[in-house]
Amino acid sequence: MIQETLARFPLRQSKGICYRESGKGQALVLLHGIGSSSGVWVYQLEELGRKFRVIAWDAPGYEESQ
């Protein structure tokens, strides 16, 4: 089930940084911890994306971020 949800929020990339995004409106930025990635926020992207623009980034060195 998580793979299906992740597929709805594919990784995007801008200037070497990868992120997942959902929704519109006021922006919320979600930051992951050490050893994690933007994928841990998939359920928050789904729920919070109903009211906000939610951006879950991958810190440099995580996922495909440089």
Question: What tags apply to this protein structure?
Answer:
21% helix; 4-stranded mixed beta sheet; alpha+beta
Structural overview:
The chain is an alpha+beta fold. It contains 2 helices and 4 strands. It has helices at 2-8, 42-48; strands at residues 12-14, 17-22, 27-30, 53-57. It has a 4-stranded mixed beta sheet with strand order 1-2-4-3, with helices on one face. The longest helix has 7 residues, at 2-8. The protein is globular, with a radius of gyration of 11 Å.
Reading the helices and strands in chain order gives HEEEHE
Shape: globular
Neighbour order of strands in the largest sheet: 1-2-4-3
Structural class: alpha+beta
Strand content: 25-35%
Question: Could you name the ranges where pLDDT drops below 50 across 5 or more consecutive residues?
Answer: none
Give the helix level as a range of percent: 10-25%
Radius of gyration: 11 Å
> How many angstroms does the end-to-end distance come to?
29 Å
Helix segment tally: 2
Mean pLDDT: 94
Biggest beta-sheet profile: 4 strands, mixed
Number of strands: 4
